Amino acid sequence: MARVDYLNDPNAPKANSIAVAVSVFIQDDEGRILMIRRTDNDLYSIPGGQLELGETLSQAAVREVREETGIECEVTGVIGLYSNPNHVIAYDDGEVRQEFSICFRAMPIGGSLRTSNESREALWVSRSKLQILDIHQSIKLRIMHGLDGRTEPFFS
Predict the structure, then answer these.
(1) Residue 121 annotated among the catalytic residues of the structure
(2) Which candidate, 129, 24, 135, places its Cα nearest to that of 69?
(3) Are 108 and 28 in contact (CB under 8 A)?
(4) Strand, coil or helix: what is 57?
(5) Which pLDDT belongs to residue 54?
(6) How far is the C-alpha of 71 from the C-alpha of 154, rounded, in Å?
(7) Which pLDDT band, with edges at 50, 70 and 90, does 150 fall under?
(8) Sign (positive/negative) of CA torsion 133, 114, 119, 144?
(9) Domains in the chain and their CATH numbers?
(10) DSSP assignment of 81-125, as one string?
(11) Model confidence over 18-58: pLDDT tens digits?
């Protein structure tokens, strides 16, 4: 399903849903960040997705990373809670979702990189290469907060 992200756009469609989502910031021993290139909008992102019934937030984070990248991880903390009503995601089925995502910090513990039906690419990206990737502003904010090493979670 294709999607379009709108941020602070007065012409954006009005939200008609909200769902609990997770995103995961992971760095390897070299400080590179685990990223995917999404199949639904062709943008680069940290792994993430929607919470499913019967799972905890941290289980959702681990599952999404595994599904999208092949990497096994362990959640170690919370980077932030992102709920900007001026960021909506329009899907081609008519759903327009208000952003609501909990971004976790995790560490890789195994697996090997691979793609999925949700990820066109799965890769480790050095901090210096982030600027050449097409990354939505909402994900750039989470990455900046992950790199900040803040002790308290961000929230909006």
Answers:
(1) yes
(2) 24
(3) yes
(4) helix
(5) 98
(6) 25
(7) confident
(8) negative
(9) 3-145 (3.90.79.10)
(10) EE--TTEEEEETTS-EEEP-EEEEEEEEEEE----BTTEEEEEEE
(11) 999 999 999 999 999 999 999 999 999 999 999 999 999 99
The dihedral of CA 80, 99, 5, 23: what is its sign? positive
From 52, 55, 74, 121, the catalytic residue: 121
Token digits of residue 118? 């949700």
Output phi, psi for 31, to 5 deg: 85, 5
**What is the reported pTM?**
0.96
Among residues of the chain, what percentage have pLDDT more than 70? 100
Cβ-Cβ contacts under 8 Å for 46 (sequence gap 6 or more):
23, 24, 25, 26, 33, 34, 35, 36, 103, 139, 142, 143, 146
CB 13 within 8 A of CB 36: no
